[in-house]
C-alpha cells in the first residue's frame, strides 16, 4: 500500500510544506488543555499501559517519546496504532521515518519513562543514556523493556492534536513475556507526576 499521500497530507507541516494556520490560531485564541472536557470522566477511569515509541530517519536523526494512546487495532492482518502528539520532536521525526518501534515498559522503569516523557529531543540526546540497537528501517530498539515491536508505517491519520501511525509489525520480541519475572507493566498512574518535555 502506498503511503505517500497520507504523509504529505497529515505531516506536511512537519516536513516543511506551507499550510493555513488552524482556526484557533487564526482567531487568536487556543483551547486550554487544562479545561474539563466531556470525556474526562471516562478517561480518568482508565489506567492504560504506557509505551516508548522511537523513530529514525534515513539520514540518522533519532527520536523517542512516552506515549499513552496506543493499541492493537487489527488481528488479520496484524496492525498496531500509535498516536503521537503533534507538539513532539518525535512526531516530526516519525513523519520522515519508514518504521516505528513500540516498547512496553515494566513498572520499575520509571527512569526510562522520565527520560522519554520528561525531556525533549530538541535539546537532549536520549539515546546516549540507554542501550539500544537499530531495528528494521533504522528504528531504535531499546535493550531493556518488557516487550517491543517494530512496525512499518502504512498510514498516518489526523486526530486532533495527535496523529495516528498505523503499523504493520515486521519485527518483535520473542513470543510471550520477554521478562521472565512477569513484572507488571508501567501504567498511566505510575507517571502522572511527570512534567512532559513538550505539552501533550
From TrEMBL:
Residues 46-194 form the Flavin reductase like domain. The keyword Oxidoreductase applies. Residues 1-38, 170-200 are annotated as: Disordered. One of its GO terms (molecular function) is FMN binding. InterPro entries: Flavin_Rdtase-like_dom, NADH-dep_flavin_reductase, Split_barrel_FMN-bd. Signal peptide: none annotated. Keywords: Oxidoreductase. This is Flavin reductase. The lineage of its organism: Bacteria, Bacillati, Actinomycetota, Actinomycetes, Kitasatosporales.
Amino acid at each position: 500500500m502506498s503511503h505517500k499521500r497520507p504523509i504529505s497530507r497529515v505531516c506536511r507541516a512537519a516536513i516543511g510544506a506551507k499550510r493555513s494556520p488552524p482556526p484557533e490560531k487564526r482567531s487568536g485564541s487556543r483551547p486550554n488543555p487544562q479545561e474539563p472536557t466531556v470525556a474526562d470522566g471516562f478517561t480518568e477511569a482508565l489506567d492504560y499501559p504506557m509505551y516508548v515509541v522511537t523513530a529514525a530517519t534515513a539520514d540518522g536523526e533519532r527520536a523517542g517519546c512516552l506515549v499513552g494512546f496506543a493499541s492493537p487495532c487489527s488481528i488479520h492482518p496484524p496492525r498496531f496504532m500509535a498516536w503521537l502528539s503533534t507538539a513532539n520532536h518525535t512526531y516530526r521525526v516519525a513523519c520522515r521515518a519508514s518504521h516505528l518501534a513500540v516498547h512496553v515498559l515494566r513498572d520499575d522503569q520509571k527512569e526510562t519513562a522520565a527520560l522519554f516523557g520528561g525531556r525533549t529531543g530538541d535539546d537532549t540526546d536520549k539515546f546516549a543514556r540507554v542501550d539500544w540497537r537499530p531495528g528494521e528501517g533504522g528504528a531504535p530498539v531499546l535493550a531493556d523493556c518488557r516487550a517491543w515491536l517494530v512496525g512499518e508505517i502504512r498510514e498516518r491519520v489526523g486526530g486532533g492534536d495527535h496523529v495516528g501511525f498505523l503499523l504493520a509489525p515486521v519485527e518483535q520480541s520473542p513470543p510471550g513475556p520477554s521478562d521472565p519475572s512477569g513484572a507488571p507493566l508501567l501504567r498511566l498512574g505510575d507517571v502522572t507526576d511527570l512534567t512532559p518535555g513538550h505539552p501533550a
